[in-house]
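Sample pair:
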Amino acid sequence: MSIELVTGAFGSLENCYDNFVEQGVDCDITLPDYCPDVMRILKCTVESSVTSSKLTGDRASVDGAARITVVYADENNGISSYEQDYPFSKYTQLPSAFDDAALTVSVRTEYVNCRAVSKRRIDVHGVISVRFRVSRIASDQVITDASGDGIQLKKKTVDGSEAVCRTAKTFRLEEEDAIGDDKPAAARILSVSSAPVLTESKLIKGKILIKGELAVRVCYIADGAVNETVCADFSLPFNEIIEAENADESCELDIRLNADRTQAELKADGEGALRYISLSADVTADVTAYRSCSVSVITDAYSTGRDIRTGYRLMNFVRLCRVINESFMCRDQLDLASLDPQRIFAVSAGKPESRETFGEGRITVEGKIPVSIILIGRDGVPVYCEREAAFEFSRPMETGEDMYCDSDVTVTGCSCSMSSDGRADFKAELYISAAVFKRTGERIIVSLEADETSAEKSRTPSLTVYFCDGDESLWDIARRYNTTVQDIARENDITGDSTGDRKMLLIPVK
């Protein structure tokens, strides 16, 4: 007896490799002549960006730069800052070469220590971690049907979302903008932050059109003022086309945006005042396209003619339930009373840490935003402190233990103002990108063949009387008596998959 199999392919996003590699940052900074002497360091940050990344065979490599920013007080308690880039190259050995795979590299600062060796020299030590992620669209072969003498199949239809395309594109944004007549001219830039926001996406004939903006905030020290900072906000629009092979209008898109190498440079106007800022940044759009599908799988099988050999596997089918791309607000109060602040000089927010929970018909994403604050005390001495602001995002959503989500939260803007009780009112605009999935695990047959060494089963026509206990599966009864579900249902006028109440059944064997 031979069994003919019918198979189908189900595309899924496979994570082939995910690992962190540490990179040290050891730098001896000598201040240029135009910078005042260091009396006290207030803050030191390391912001890393990726210049290029490459996947070659079983090796993944990246080139990048860590931008070191030191904010310090001089002998007159004036606040100054200095930046220096620290280039790096890193690679990791993969367990094997992955064909048609995509490499995603992200960098984060683990820690940084900074001390003034002298009034002109600063010693910086830190560690950044480079995350290498390799993924690809994997095609899982699934047995959807089988035929042959006496083969009986128990089938189930599973709803899922098939990953059909994963692609990425990096594009450069450049623009020169005026600071604005309502703001003073700049003396020097203190910090630059950016966050990309997706406003529209469309998929047409294998091409993805994305529109959005890069929100850039430049914090600078005002010209001619003592310890006065100004924040200027800019918006760099983008409109890009991304090739997406195998994707069509029926697909749903999970789009993640990331900004790298954001730079700002002051430019003078016709009168010599620094009233223009030249902005540039690299934005990467990482896109995965999913198509809804229904997959017919075989969960059990037997043959009325001969013994068969079957192989089983637990396979996880995922269904994309919802894609979230939204802005929301965070408000919190930060306790600064112990520092006796007079006013806030500068505030910045780092990358939020978040976690997702499902319950009571809602998805909730909550976490903490690291907030860095430079204060001016009552005695005029600048003080640096760190606090955390809590945020929460919640939307109605189907829930359950089989739900999971991969969310990314970024800060697109923030502000902080003192209140009368020594607390600060912190406000931030956040942008969340999230894809919510439902996972369904099914034990399915992945191999099916006749056992040619077994004898053919005897099938003498007969009729057996069976008393069922009630609501038994027709499949289990048919398997036990080596007959078919259709024959039992037809003989006993049963329309469903189970027997219903306790009753006597006639089991035909032909």
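The mean pLDDT is 91.
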